[in-house]
Write a structure and sequence with these properties.
The protein is α/β, with parallel strands linked by helices. The protein has 5 domains: 4-202, Rossmann fold; 210-365 and 375-390, 3-Layer(aba) Sandwich (Rossmann fold), CATH 3.40.50.300; 408-508, Winged helix-like DNA-binding domain superfamily/Winged helix DNA-binding domain (Arc Repressor Mutant, subunit A), CATH 1.10.10; 533-605, Orthogonal Bundle (DNA polymerase, domain 1); 624-725, Orthogonal Bundle (Arc Repressor Mutant, subunit A). It contains 34 helices and 17 strands. The strands form 4 sheets. It has a 7-stranded parallel sheet with strand order 3-4-2-5-6-1-7, sandwiched between helices. A 6-stranded parallel sheet has the order 8-13-12-9-11-10, sandwiched between helices. The chain has a two-stranded antiparallel sheet with strand order 14-17. Helix 13 (315-322) links the parallel strand 12 and strand 13. Helix 14 (340-349) packs antiparallel against helix 15 (355-373), helix 19 packs across helix 21 (464-476) and helix 30 (650-662) runs parallel beside helix 34 (710-725).
Length: 726
């Protein structure tokens, strides 16, 4: 048994931290005592440490079962930086050749390797089972354990085979970890891994530093995203899209607008995919545009924003993806673009799947729609979904709380909903209940003879949005319950029956109405900072230089929070550097000298008095055609040649180019105008547009048409719009 004091000294020794986060210490002690452990901890809560530290302390090798090769490489690189021998951590998967596999096995047999990362598919290979049977295993860790459940957002059938394989290799304690699981998914995980008696540690799902916002997905969505990213200059961000096609288009469109962005999706060549991921981790690019294939377990602490171009298929998926922002506790902005059309598309994609799977998918989509459309605190809605009661009415860090709507009394409407649910014998879903209440006349209602009930038509025909809000907020208040496992049927709780007998005030906020009209919402966010910003900037540059030399992501050297502490307390010896949060002995020895030298020089040159015991506070879719036209113009291809190469006549090309500049993209066609147009004529037409109150083409032709052709006028109008408007 390891004592609390020993555990803290081990934490300091290996990782450079003085204290544990949340319930990390209890989790580790439970695993060290030989128990099965189930860990439910949001992204950024420090899940990895819960198996990394015990693996370093126990005899033998810990087997870490993980779903993605990229994740394994990322974690192995990070672990190697906490020790002095690269053999401390390895991964075993299909990306390794024979000699690499032999090296891994040799290090394990010699006792060097404390963590071995394997994919579930690799576990099932007979040669790996035979090898693992012959080594001393300290414990098994099942990372991203939600992959076991069909109700989880990333179900993987191979995860269902983990328990039988563990039994075959040799039973040892199991720690299962996930950043996101509803009560239903949690039950599935424990049942499937045979760990019903596991000690369960459930952290709060609240990430106070994350700002949540849902915006209307208008025709100007691409322009909105460009504007937002340019306001976040130098910060790292992820944009999630549902389709590979959209990922490619958006990444290209951002690139031609001078934003350093790369795509990432499962359809790409794996070498290119890994190169793009590394470019993001090493801060060679600011933005990754990705499908959900990107990011699971990626340990980049300083992602400052996550944008959802398309709304995800489930709230679990949304929570997991937004959780990749602000993992270091700093600023994290989560912006989702929503239109109900996207949900209709997702529903169409489900056609052809088994009925039960379609029903599960539909229920998950309805929860997502309710979250997006609700005017309630976003945090409260999200936490309720994960079985957590958030007591505050205003979190102060979401769009709904920063721009609150006036509450309206809905006591009578809630009573009407409860009466209708009871009259329908608790056997129908919310949308059907609303149809009955608003007097819809359809074949289903008629066949059940529900049009003969007293509650039929008890509400106005146009009150659908209000009733949706009443039901959603009635569920969160505990008066109604949605039986998610039974097709989402609506039930009345004990509190709901009591409310009907003795109604009291029930105030709600009406749901947001999302349409395709342009909407401007002020985005909010804050970040931490160092006492000496000049030194902080110098240290960041040094970190980047070292990272480039070693071909490592910069945060693997030192995280931002460590650099901030250095730029506040000015450590000038290895011993002082070891005391900086997140450094530790291994990192101080490996990288410390160059940082100390720079800090020392800065202190001397600026005659800084070092504080001794200062506490550190610790844009409309652009088609492939439009993008290729932009690229052609960037390469200065003559516009008539460009039209011919795209199979367009010249006027059709001008239509496309006009659409590009009207959507806010800046282009330069001077190279072509210089060839085909007299300079005085160009200036004459440009001056017209400068003085005109309108860019209307017919008015321009009427004014200028005697001297210039329509094509010439359109070309100069394009130049004018691009230079003056974008």
């Amino acid at each position: 048994m390891v004592t609390h004091i020993d555990l803290k000294s081990e934490l300091k020794n290996y990782f450079g931290f003085d204290t544990f986060k949340g319930n990390q210490e209890e989790i580790i002690l439970s695993l060290l005592a030989g128990n099965d452990v189930f860990v439910l901890m949001p992204t950024g809560g420090g899940k990895s440490l819960c198996y990394q530290l015990p693996s370093l302390m126990l005899d033998g090798t810990a087997i870490i079962i993980s779903p993605l090769i990229a994740l394994m490489k990322n974690q192995v690189d990070a672990m190697r930086n906490f020790g002095e021998d690269d053999g401390i951590a390895h991964f075993l998967n299909s990306s390794l050749n024979k000699s690499a596999i032999e090296k891994v096995k040799s290090d394990i047999l010699s006792g060097k390797t404390k963590l071995l990362y394997v994919a579930p598919e690799s576990l099932t290979k007979e040669e790996n089972i035979d090898f693992l049977r012959g080594i001393k295993i300290s414990f098994y860790a099942v990372d991203e354990a939600h992959c076991i459940s069909e109700w989880g957002h990333d179900f993987r059938p191979e995860y269902r085979r983990i328990r039988p394989i563990i039994n075959e290799i040799g039973v040892r304690p199991v720690i299962a970890l996930t950043a996101t699981a509803t009560p239903k998914v949690q039950h599935d995980i424990q049942k499937n891994l045979g760990m019903q008696n596991a000690k369960v540690f459930k952290s709060s799902f609240n990430r106070p530093n994350l700002y949540y916002e849902v915006r209307s997905k208008t025709k100007n969505v691409d322009k909105d995203i460009i504007k937002y990213i340019k306001s976040q200059e130098g910060k790292s961000g992820i944009i999630y899209c549902l389709s590979r096609k959209k990922v490619e288009e958006l990444a290209e469109m951002l690139s031609v607008n001078n934003i350093k962005a790369l795509p990432y999706h499962a359809g790409m060549d794996s070498a290119q995919r890994n190169a793009n991921q590394d470019a993001f981790l090493w801060e060679k690019v600011d933005v990754i545009v990705a499908t959900i294939a990107f990011g699971m377990g990626i340990d980049k602490p300083d992602v400052r924003y996550v944008i959802h171009y398309d709304i995800p298929k489930s709230l679990e998926g949304y929570y997991q993806e937004t959780g990749r922002a602000g993992r270091d506790g700093g600023e994290g902005q989560c912006i989702a673009f929503y239109t109900s059309k996207d949900l209709q598309k997702l529903e169409k994609f489900m056609q052809g799947k088994p009925i039960a799977e379609q029903e599960i998918g539909r229920q998950l989509l309805l929860e997502t729609a309710a979250y997006c459309e609700s005017s309630m605190c976003r945090r409260k809605t999200l936490l309720y979904y994960f079985g957590e009661d958030y007591k505050e009415d205003n979190c102060g860090n979401c769009d709904n709380c920063l721009n609150p709507k006036k509450k309206v009394e809905a006591k009578d409407e809630l009573c009407a909903v409860i009466e209708t649910v009871i009259a329908l014998k608790e056997k129908f879903k919310p949308d059907y209940i609303i149809d009955v209440m608003t007097g819809k006349s359809n074949s289903e209602i008629k066949s059940y003879k529900h049009d003969e009930l007293e509650v039929y038509g008890c509400q106005d025909a146009d009150s659908e949005r209000l009733l949706n809000a009443v039901i959603h907020q009635g569920i969160i208040a505990g008066y109604l319950d949605k039986d998610i496992e039974n097709y989402g049927l609506l039930k009345v709780t004990k509190a709901g029956h009591a409310f009907l007998k003795n109604p009291k005030s029930f105030k709600i906020v009406e749901d947001n109405e999302y349409n395709e009209e342009e909407e401007e919402v002020v985005m909010k966010g804050g970040s931490s900072c160092a006492v000496d910003p000049e030194l902080y900037s110098i240290l960041k540059d040094l970190r980047k230089k070292i990272a480039k030399r070693l071909e490592l992501p910069p945060y693997v050297i030192f995280q931002d929070v460590s650099l901030e502490a250095m730029a506040t307390t000015y450590p000038i010896t290895i011993e002082e550097l070891q005391n900086i949060q997140g450094v530790g002995a291994g990192k101080a020895k490996r990288y410390g000298e160059e940082f100390i030298k720079v800090i020392k020089t800065h202190v001397e040159e600026n005659e800084i008095d070092r504080p001794e015991d200062l506490r550190v506070r610790t844009v409309a879719n652009k088609s492939k055609l439009k993008i290729s036209i932009i690229q052609g113009i960037d390469r200065k291809i003559a516009l008539d040649e460009l039209a011919e190469s795209k199979g367009l006549d010249f006027n059709e090309l001008l239509d496309e180019v006009e659409a590009i500049v009207y959507s806010g993209t800046k282009i330069n066609i001077d190279y072509f105008l210089d060839e085909v147009m007299d300079e005085d004529h160009l200036e004459d037409m440009f001056a017209y547009f400068k003085e005109s109150e309108s860019d209307d083409l017919e008015a321009a032709i009427e004014e200028l048409g005697g001297e210039y052709t329509e094509e010439e006028i359109r070309l100069v109008r394009i130049k004018f719009l691009s230079e003056m408007g974008n």
